[in-house]
Specification:
about 60% helix, single chain, 3 strands, 3-stranded antiparallel beta sheet, mainly alpha
């Protein structure tokens, strides 16, 4: 009597096991709640969503607080259209300004203004506290290391290097 399971046909999905379902649903729940937690903190403290805060941070870390728009979209993992909308809102607040690229007539730079830098400086302590309380204070150093390794593996798998890859910042 053959007790080995019958393999699924090639076109049949590889359904998640009960354990995998628990892991997946825990991840989705945590990611959704964390993003909401950080959005609420940043809206309360600075009147901006989490993605805008990330853009300001990247600009603050860049030489001369400026970055080409295409590079900023790549960093944020968002479409160029979404980035353009975000930068327009940040410009309206006086936190960012755009400048045309002299070497490439189609390119533009996003530049963090002094006012934007000051907003970031005031907002960063509350934000890092929210991140620490929500994530790092709940994990052991070993769990933190494991989480970092796992997220790097997942991110690398979702960000292929081939030229034709369908990635948000190329749209």
């Amino acid at each position: 009597m053959n007790t080995a399971p019958t393999p699924a046909p090639a076109d049949e999905p590889r359904w998640l096991s009960a354990e995998e379902q628990l892991v997946w649903r825990s991840y989705i729940q945590a990611a959704t709640l964390l993003e909401d937690h950080l959005d609420r903190q940043l809206q309360r403290d600075a009147g901006m969503p989490h993605v805008y805060y990330g853009l300001l941070v990247k600009l603050a870390e860049s030489p001369r607080r400026r970055l080409r728009m295409t590079e900023l979209a790549r960093y944020a993992k968002i479409t160029r259209s979404r980035l353009s909308h975000a930068i327009a809102r940040l410009e309206k607040n006086g936190w960012v300004r755009r400048e045309d690229c002299t070497s490439d007539k189609r390119g533009q730079f996003a530049i963090l203004t002094d006012e934007g830098y000051e907003v970031l400086r005031r907002t960063a302590p509350g934000h890092v506290n929210a991140v620490r309380q929500a994530v790092f204070d709940r994990l052991t150093p070993e769990q933190q290391k494991s989480l970092g390794e796992i997220m790097r593996i997942v991110a690398e798998g979702l960000q292929p290097s081939e030229a034709g890859a369908d990635l948000p910042w190329r749209r």
